[in-house]
Model the fold of this input.
Amino acid sequence: AGPDATGRWWALSIYIAGCLTDWLGGYLARVWRQQSTLGRMLDPIADKLLIISAFVTMVLLGMLPVWLVIIVVSRDVLLVLGSIVIYFAGHEFKARPSLMGKITTVLQLLVVTLTLVLKNIDAEMMLMPVLAPTTFDQTYASYLRVAALGLTILLPVVAILMLTGEWSQRSA
Done:
């Protein structure tokens, strides 16, 4: 098996533990009605950090194509920037994941998991020609949805705040 194989199994185990504890924490919070504003804000950030760190690491190791990582990371950066604009516009940010966003996240997690599993069993990346483009398509569709929503809603708000001088008062 060798040290590389052992490290890959550890990586897979830690990644799956991260995914399961993230899911379990959210599930228990809902079941026990222990959801909080802070938890609702931090959970999506934790999800993004898990996915981005896994994708970036895998591209650096040559396990995933660069184009897939670029679209995944840029979508998440767009979401964060939109949240910041909403905050500075003086509105409360309430993250409500859409079905498209949930599907995108599941596909992204699946890409990482399958990549690690296939590498661990020394299998060819037979699913990647199908899974990577599907994940790209779903992520890009979600990216476009978020961008369109941001342009439709946020830009007029920002423009009005800037024209009235409210933006500089709120960001000071």
Summary: The radius of gyration is 19 Å. The longest helix spans residues 128-164. The chain is about 85% helix and 0% strand.
